[in-house]
Amino acid sequence: MEKFQTLTSTYVPLPIENVDTDQIIPARFLKATTREGFGNYLFADWRYDKSGNPNPDFVLNNPTYSGQILVAGKNFGSGSSREHAAWALAGYGFRVIVSSFFADIFKNNALNNGILPIVVSEDFLNDLFECVNKNPQATITVNLEEQTITNNENGRTESFEINAYKKECLLKGLDDIDFLLSNKDKIEAYEKNRIFNY
Amino acid sequence: MKTLFDKIWDAHIVTEVKDGPTQLYIDRHYCHEVTSPQAFAGLRSRGLKVFRPEKTILTADHNIPTMDQDKPIRDEVSRFQVDTLAKNAQEFGLTYYGLGHPKNGIVHVIGPENGYTLPGMTIVCGDSHTSTHGAFGAIAFGIGTSEVEMVLASQCILQTRPKTMRITFRGKLNEGVTAKDMALYMISQLTTGGATGYFVEYTGEAVENLSMEGRMTLCNLSIEMGARGGMVAPDETTFAYLKGREFAPKGEKWDEAVAYWRTLKSDDDAVFDKEVVFDASQIKPMITYGTNPGMAMPIDGIIPEPENGDTASRISYEKALNYMGFKPGEKLEGKPVDYVFLGSCTNGRIEDFRMFANYVKGKKKADNITAWLVPGSWQVRKQIEAEGLDKILKEAGFELRQPGCSACLAMNDDKIPAGKYAVSTSNRNFEGRQGPGARTILAGPLVAAAAAVTGRITDPTK
Ligand code: SF4
Hints:
By secondary structure, chain A is α/β, with parallel strands linked by helices. Chain A has helices spanning 21-24, 44-47, 84-92, 104-111, 122-134, 164-172, 176-181, 184-193; strands spanning 6-14, 69-72, 96-99, 116-119, 139-143, 148-151, 156-159. Helices cover 32% and strands 17% of the residues of chain A. In chain A, strands 4-3-2-1-5-6-7 form a 7-stranded mixed sheet. Chain B contains 16 helices and 18 strands. In chain B, strand 4 (56-59), helix 3 and strand 5 (95-97) form a beta-alpha-beta unit. Chain B has helices spanning 4-10, 37-46, 76-92, 107-113, 145-154, 179-190, 205-208, 212-220, 236-242, 251-261, 311-324, 344-347, 350-360, 378-386, 389-395, 445-454, and strands spanning 13-16, 22-25, 28-31, 56-59, 95-97, 122-125, 139-142, 156-159, 163-170, 198-203, 229-231, 274-279, 286-288, 296-298, 339-342, 370-373, 421-424, 439-442. In chain B, the strands form 5 sheets. A 5-stranded parallel sheet of chain B has the order 5-4-3-6-7, sandwiched between helices. Chain B has a 4-stranded parallel sheet with strand order 11-10-9-12. Chain B is of the alpha/beta class. Bound molecules: iron/sulfur cluster. The site of iron/sulfur cluster has 14 residues of chain B, from helix 4 and helix 12.
């Protein structure tokens, strides 16, 4: 997994709530057996019209906005557990998703793919939407070590939460499997000693 | 002092990661073709075996046709994905129920009906509706593909302990009101993110009175309000359902198991992080009017005006109604629809088919309706035939399809055409979920049956 430390980038606003994983990557694109190529289908039904042409009204097709950070409305990533949603976001080039609320499974999937989901206050979020409206070149700085996110238009900073283990994984680019495999003896000991065996 | 959740969670802790998640042991792992290929590829590239192969069960369900299953799958990409699952099963030595196998079906239907799902277990699957298995008093939740790889490699997963919530349904349900209506009612009250971060235990008279099928429907939909999972404490109903199932314990082992399972309930003085109480007698048959399961109302209700929330909420609400072709203030009862879908891991079990058949008995399918009746598994289909329900359905003008996820996520050919209205017993009315442009109205099997014979949204209790 790629390491994550700090990032300063312009950002793409998506002021829609309850963006579910069927929107992030519709089911008909889930037939692949590898992790590659999903970026092309990110938000496919919003991004392309019926004949597959880019829909000019959708933000990803608007050249005014770009960057490695997606800023989305509350409850981002609800619905299906498909990790393809995280692969599509990462494949497109996003490394940070900012929202005021994330669905649980999505949050784990994002972290397992080197994408940092950052929860900010409603106020901070609305502020970001307003700033980028006025200035599409507005930037955000994320500092994982310090656990802070800064709106560089007005210098407003919030700190965000991430559990210490996951933070370590992201900073060093390690994944959970490495950790679990180093723990085999504990797993075997557990199997021997459990109270009820299935 | 412990909740049911605490008891099961604590019994599965392998170790606690310092300042981090819990390493949890997994008793049962279900796998299907869509969310597993990249996990098996991961194992291969790391040169790993499956750590405990007997604990993983594979089935093909998401991406399969519901007609002509004896012939090769026509869609080449789908066929490759299903073949990949079969190959992975063989290479890694895992149990696999492929197309046409008598034990094949939707992963959340076949687990319980074969006795693979048992009380007190931890159960995971690369599918959010794994919450279904919580009906047996298990900790069951959906995981992503990286996590599937973790379970295959180590039979463990890293999880942060969720908060606990108890939802009590006091009193009795009215005649004609089903577990699906309870669930849609609950989500409409709590919203789609209302239980995020929580694991829910369902209790109360109305829950105790539910059959195992009904409990599965209720737990299945826990994820639609953001909950990590939902569970019901095991009781006599649970034991009666499980006794004699193929992979449930037998003889002395059964007695031992039941003795243990009887201890699996929340202590009287257990404290939950959140408590919610509903009055079951207030619940009517429910339908959805928007593009998430929280946008639900009683069948005779009126679509509410948008709340005076912030811009994002307003935009989202208008977008949803616009997609559905509905307006605030509109009543949906009596509105014509085009499709009826009975099936999915939410309402594709035998009891759902009994309810549907019972309602349409002696009536006729409406001419304007295309109906897709898709049993959740081959065993469900066999049971339908054994009980003669197929004849009742046929006389009323309905045909049974072959098992699979089908129009629930429309990965196969079962897609609702753009702009058409479908009354569906599945679990998600998201934009495009049942096909690009498809307009889904979620409901229980009785509302679906009433729509199928009248061609309109109809209250089955009237
Ligand atoms: S029936 Fe629908 S919700 Fe259930 S497992 Fe299949 S796709 Fe998922």
